[in-house]
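Order emerges. One example.
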Amino acid sequence: MDEIYDSDFGTSASCNVNVACEQGIEWDCQISSVCKIIIGESSCSGSLINNDCCDLTPYILTANHCFTISGVDPIDWNFRFNYESPVCDPSEEPNPLQWVPYFGATIDARWGDTDFLLVELNDALNQEDNLSFSGWDRTTTPNHGVVTCIHHPAGDVKKISIDNTPPATQAFDWFVDDWDIGTTEGGSSGASLFGINQRIMGIDSRGDGLEPCDPDKGTFFGRFDVSWGGNGTPNSRLIDWLGASTNPNTMDCMQHPFIEGPEVLCTDPETYTLINNMPCVKTVTWRVEPANLFASPGSGNGVTAPLWGNNTSSGPATLIYTLSAEGCNDAEVEYDLFVGRPCTFELHSFPTEICVGEQGETLSGAAKFKADVFPNPANEFIEVICSGYIPGTRIAASLISTDGKVVKTIEEYSHNFKVDMADLLSGLYVLQLNADGVIYHEKIVKL
């Protein structure tokens, strides 16, 4: 690799094993739930975790000492998903465009005796990120036979560690005496320990003092079952956040639900389907907004929505599925589409293959304005070269952070210009170009 994007890449002990290796097979759901948590100059590991309502609340379980030792409030933490090598060995760092970052969280509950910390991301998850919510087991004797840890040791790309011997039981901890595959080290703190049924049973609290690749290396994991009741108050236990509705003994991993269907809807009927593997029973309804763009019904029940547009109106629309259960907050899954014949061809936040006639004819490539942006990832600046630009046209350029804030704006009257990024924090941004109403978007990674 010519360039390293994260200075932690490749710094973990040599006995660690990438999740892309054969040991990670059949762990896809749990792997996609695990994130690297960047806390000032240090890092920890964490997992998106499901609750008994499956309501898509973005809870992340990690270690309490990641907060108490760092002194950094989670509102300033950076949660990076998909930081994992695409190959087993030798390791490769993923391009930053593949990372999935979220910024900031609030504390819901924590307890030092089992060293757990439950935080909630400030932003709802984007279903296009394809993240998952790990399940858990709160019983006092989980079926843990073989135990597995998925983590970011030393802040490196995601690794997997396995011990074939059940851990020892202590008052507040499970103790993995030694690892048969992989290890744990600094940066693994907060990682989940999974039992043989692939459910969380513990949280990485500390090592036993041995070097990471010592064959006797052991790790203490705060017990999930003890954390369930914690210290008896909502802000010191897990039950109020993960089991307040039905208080089940176990919960399974689930992928974030998503919707399948065409991005462009003409007047011919199309079927849209909610793909959902929630381990919770839900009543499913759907609706479209705005309903006036559709000749089909604007609402219905079930996971399939038969839709078609009318032949007189056009525009952007949203299909919204609502998943409901008694005692739970509703969960909503949305899908953006374009309906009908457009009034102009200046809708570049939508597909360029759009309906142009009542019989469902299409026109491809109607959008002529484009922009090449480089370098990407960038450090000091990005250069923008526009094609399909009409001389003298005003271009309003904006850089937008992942929390939706506009952090920089400039105005240009040229097909070629630069945008200074030197003063911006590292992370993912969206470059928006508005050329007299023609909108163009590009993801930019600031190193």
